[in-house]
Structure formats: C-alpha cells, structure tokens
Amino acid sequence: MIRVNSLAHVYDKGRRLKFPCWEIGDMEQWLLLGASGSGKSTLLNIISGLLKPSQGAVLINGTDLYNLPVRGLDRFRGRHIGIIFQRPHLIRSLDVLDNLELAAVMAGLPIDHERNRSLLADLGIGDLAKNYPDQLSQGQLQRVSVARALVNKPDLLIADEPTSSLDDENANQVIKMLTTQAKDNGAALIIATHDARVRDHLTKTYLL
Amino acid sequence: MNILKISSKNLVRNRLTTILNIILVAFGVGILSVLFLASTQINNKLENNAKDIDLVVGAKGSPLQLILSSVYHIDNPTGNIPAKDAYQLMRNPMVKRAVPLALGDNYSGYRIVGTDSSFTNLYGLSIQKGSYWHKDLEVTLGSNVAVTSGLKIGDSFFGAHGLTGSGDIHKKYAYQVMGILKPQGNITDNLILTNIGSVYKMHEEKHTENHKHTAAEEAKEINDKQITALLIQYKSPMSVVVFPRMVNHSTNMQAASPAMESARLFSLIGVGIDTLKWFAIFIMGVAALSIFISLYNAMKERKYDLAIMRCLGASKPKLFFLVMFEGVLVTFMGTCLGLLIGHAALEVIGIYQETSQAKLTGLTAFPQEIYLIWIGLFIGALASLIPAMQIYKVDIAATLTKDR
Ligand SMILES: Nc1ncnc2c1ncn2[C@@H]1O[C@H](COP(=O)(O)OP(=O)(O)OP(=O)(O)O)[C@@H](O)[C@H]1O
Ligand SMILES: [Mg+2]
C-alpha cells in the first residue's frame, strides 16, 4: 500500500507544484495523467525516492521514504521499487543479461539466473540475452528496461512515459507487458503518460 | 557480476584510452624498475667483489682502470710491475695479506689469472669438484666457466693471448683442468685460476713464435719477471692514509682504493641514472594526468550509468569506490606490465652484454619493487579522486528524466 500525503515541491526558481493526496492499494494499476509541465515526472521521482519533496511524505507499506537515511533510501528503492524511464538507459558496456544482473547486485540481492532468463523469455527477448544495448531496437531496449525493473520482485512498478518513443505496435506490447507482468509479479503499477494509446489498458486514473 | 566485472567491462569498452593509459604507466614503471634493478645489481656486484680488498697496487696509470682490471676484471691492466718490487711490498709490516695477480691470457673470454693460494683465502673459495692447481699449467675453473665452456676435470685447453678474443692462441702448452670451484656469487665464478709460473711459461713460448710484437717488447715482458697487480689487505685500518702515499711516492707503482674508485665510478653513472629517473617520474606524471583527463571526460557519459546504478539501489560511496577502482585498476595493470617490461629489458640487456663479469639479469626481484606497485596504486587513486567525487554531485532524477 502506497500513500502520498499533502505533497508539494518547489524547484529552484520554479513555481510551486502541489499534489493531491493519493492512495494506491496492493497490485492496483493506475494511470497518472496531466498536461505537459503539470508535474507528472516530478511526482514519480518523489514517489521513487529520487527527489526529496519540499513538503509532505511518501509512505510505502508503512515506510516513510524521506525519513530513511540516504543509504537506506537507496537500498529501499533498489529492493522495492522498479523504475522504467522514457529512455531505456541501459549500461552500454554490459550485455542484456548483465544489465539484469546489475539490478540485483546494486540492490545487494543474490542473482537469480533462472528468473532473469524467464523474464526475458516472457518479454519475448529471450534470444537477445547476450546482445549489447547498441545492437537492440528502441522497442527491444524498452522491454529490457521493463525486465530490469522486475528483477528484484518490486512492490511498486513506476513507468514515466514508457511508450512515447515507440510505434503503435511496440507501444501496445510494452503496455500489455507492463500490466501483465505487474500482475504476475504482485506489484502495483503507475504509468505516467499523455499517450492516448495507453488509456484503454488501465481504468484507475489520477489527474494532475 | 561484481565491481571488478563492471569496471573491466567499461575499460574494455573504452579500450583505446585504457591501453594508452596502461602503456604510459608501464613505461614509467618500466624505466624506474630497470634503473632500480641495474643500479642495485651493479652496486651489489661492486661491493661483493671488492669486499675484502683494501688496496690495489699496479703500474702507474688511471687508478680507475687499475681497479676495473684487477678487481672487477673488466678493463685492460695499466701495465705490469716488477715482481721484485711487488714482493718487497708484500713483506711490509702494514700488510696482512697480499695477493699477486698475473693477467694476460683468456680462454673464450674468461680471464686466466695467475696467482697463488692467498687468492683462495682472500675470496674464501672452496672446491666443488677435483682440487686446486698445484703445478704449472694446472688450472681450477670458476663455476660459471665450467658450466658455459663445458670443460670437465682432466680436460685440457689452449689459452689465447690478450684479455678477450681468441685470435692469438698459445698452441705450445695446454692447460689442464684440475678442479672446479663452488659458485661464489662474485667475480671468481668467471675466472680461470692458475699459478704465476704458468703465465710466465705461456709468454716464453710467445717469445719463440712471436708474430706481432716487437722483440724488444716481448723481452721486456718476460725477462725481468713481472706481475700485473697486487691485492692488499691491511693489518689495521690505520694504514689507509699512510700506505697508499708510501706506494705512490716512494715506488714506481700506483696504489688505488677499490672503495674510492667504485664510489667515483658510481657518481659518474649516477648523473645518468638521475636524469633517467626524472624522465620516468615525468612519464608517470603524464600517465596520471592522462588517466585523470580520460576519467573526467568519461564522467559526462558515465553520469547516466551511475545515475541508473543509484536508481537500482547503489549507494554513493559504492559508486565512488567503483570509479576509483577503475583508475586504480588501470595503474595496477600498468605497473605490473611495467615491472614485467623492466625485468625483460634488463634480461635482454644482460644477454647482449659483452663482459660476462658484470652481467645484469632481469630474473631477480627485490622486495623494494613492491613500493613501485604501491606508487602505481597511489597515482591511480590520486588521478581518479576528482572524477570520483563527481558522484556526489549527480542529480539522479534530473539526469534520468532528461533525454540523453
Ligand atoms: N530540474 C528542474 N529544475 C527546475 N524546474 C524543473 C525541473 N524539472 C522540472 N521542472 C519544472 O517543473 C514543472 C513540472 O515538470 P515535470 O517534468 O514534472 O512535468 P511533466 O508533467 O512530467 O511534463 P511532461 O509531460 O512534459 O514530461 C515544469 O514546469 C518544469 O519546468
Ligand atoms: Mg515528464
């Protein structure tokens, strides 16, 4: 269960961004909608523990994120939150499988080779395990980053505009994968987007 | 998957820069290690060979040449001295032990030294096989001579006139091998020992079938018996001042101190060594700068990788360590390669060296070389410190939300 309480954030020389209260139950799937510049990315960064809000608190399963020490927050994020960015951001010097293993290593968890293989297979990129990011297409890269977000069995999966650089077919597939994988892995899901193609897949919406 | 793998994969991805940096470090360390090994070995050899010799008396000329020829057996002798003058000096009350040397011939580059049993006492020699020489034309081989020439006890061979080369062979008399010495780790390993009579005998023979030298020269060399030099040990250290002056002023001979001459020699070499040392340090500095620049530049792109790793749960100190580790890994590999190159280079130099007396080898290691490794690691750490500190400045959210 995730709770966002009277959050507000002010960037240096920016206007004040206020976020309404938000409660997300276990395994619920939400759309985060809003005009460009309304603060969607800002809110997701705050929920992922990447950006300390000027005011308010984020509670994930009872843990107040910004009450944790810096190291504890990094560790919590690694173990409980899977993040998918608009751009895949894979490590270019490592192959696909190593990129997945990196997620476990950085979170201080043991590597589960079997799970990594089956994740790639489920996402239809099982035969790309030994390829390097430079050798993959945008759609394939985004699938790898979905797989990487799932490696540590997170409680919460966060995706910021995961489909904006993909064509219709890839966008559809990635969204389908996100929703089914979130369900299969028992994770709650938040997708921020202004992509109309995404809206049909999820029912719950949070508007900024 | 661990830090080592992440770092090495990243280094492989930027292999050109990595190789350049490794080579720079390796060059610096290589030069330093050659200098270090060579100067230690030369120093050890100089000290080892002159350990118990307080003074050398020989013909007038360059004192350094006298020392080189009769203690280190490298250069040609300054000339000969009358045997009777030498024997008179040997009886001087200040002298504890005096060893006469008669040089002049060689066998495939190894010097044949005419001397007496005091020589074996001076160097503390002992026999490995066979016995010492007793009669004229009997010889005892240094261990290294026996190994490389393949001569065995009972074998005989002809000496050649001069201290190197085998042009002018004394065919009339053959030397006979009586014994082989235990390895001593000093110059005696490369000498062939016999008595002074044998050397005289060889040169009587020269007289009869003389081709090149004038009759007058030959006659002088042989008739009034001469020796090449006298190695002297004092009874008391007090003689250091008096005795050489006495020799230099009241006789027609020259006295030279091995300690003083090798110190002088070393100070001559030292200038060159110092220059090279500064050059090597300069190269190491360039290496450090190059590592710093390449790491610093790479941070622009690595920022994304590091932000992702933070996102995946890595702490700042862990990533700081990762960047430092990469720099240190490069210098560590460079240092190891440099030591390898240094040793190999010295071994090659040793192979092409003409004199077997002062042979350098790359096959020995000194515990002090560990310092070079530490210096390498330190330089790596120093060069990567500032790039690694950038970790603390990266704003993950901003970096990852922005497009690349
Ligand atoms: N690092 C920053 N520094 C200062 N201001 C920022 C920063 N990031 C975002 N902002 C401002 O905060 C506001 C919200 O930005 P945010 O990126 O959260 O919007 P968004 O809803 O994700 O927009 P988009 O749909 O275009 O991605 C914008 O007005 C933006 O200019
Ligand atoms: Mg955004």
From TrEMBL, chain A:
User: Key word Calcium present in the record?
Assistant: no
Transmembrane domains' residue ranges: none
The organism's superkingdom is given as: Bacteria
Query: Nucleotide-binding: is it a keyword of this entry?
Result: yes
Q: Which GO terms describe its cellular component?
A: plasma membrane
Could you tell me which residue ranges the ABC transporter domain spans? 2-207
- Note the SUPFAM superfamilies from the entry: P-loop containing nucleoside triphosphate hydrolases
Key words of the record: ATP-binding, Nucleotide-binding
List the GO molecular function terms. Answer: ATP binding; ATP hydrolysis activity; transmembrane transporter activity
Q: Which named protein is this?
A: Putative ABC transport system ATP-binding protein
Organism of derivation: Pedobacter terrae
> What are the leading ranks of the lineage?
Bacteria, Pseudomonadati, Bacteroidota, Sphingobacteriia, Sphingobacteriales
From TrEMBL, chain B:
Q: Which species is this UniProt entry from?
A: Pedobacter terrae
Q: Could you list the residue ranges that cross the membrane?
A: 20-38, 278-298, 319-352, 372-392
Protein name from the UniProt record: Putative ABC transport system permease protein
The signal peptide here is none
Pfam family of this protein, just one? FtsX
Enumerate the subcellular locations listed in this protein's record, separating them with semicolons: Cell membrane
Name the keywords, alphabetized: Cell membrane, Membrane, Transmembrane, Transmembrane helix
Indicate the principal place this protein occupies in or around the cell: membrane
User: Locate the ABC3 transporter permease C-terminal domain: which residues?
Assistant: 279-394
Per the record, membrane topology reads:
Multi-pass membrane protein
Query: GO cellular-component terms in the record?
Result: plasma membrane
- Ranges for domain MacB-like periplasmic core come to 18-199
